[in-house]
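QA checklist item 7 of 12: single-chain prediction sanity check.
[x] sequence parsed
[x] length recorded as 83
[x] structure emitted
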Amino acid sequence: MSGRPVKRSLTLRGHRTSVSLEDAFWRAFRDIAEARDMPINALAAEIDEAREIEVGLASAIRVYVLDWYRDGALPRQSSGAAS
């Protein structure tokens, strides 16, 4: 797994933009959108609307992901799953 950010494209309110996120944050961001039963672009637009003007979108997404997991909104995967 790479810790380097990868540029990814999103559409916010009809306009294309891009964010640079690490794979782990992108996967978690997609999982949250799925858990909330919403398109990833809609979740990105929600985060974009709520962020402070001086905070970049990628940073706002990372903090959103962190808060989501810290608040326990998704059940944790058990590490001892049988194969």
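[x] summary fact logged: The radius of gyration is 14 Å.
[ ] second reviewer sign-off
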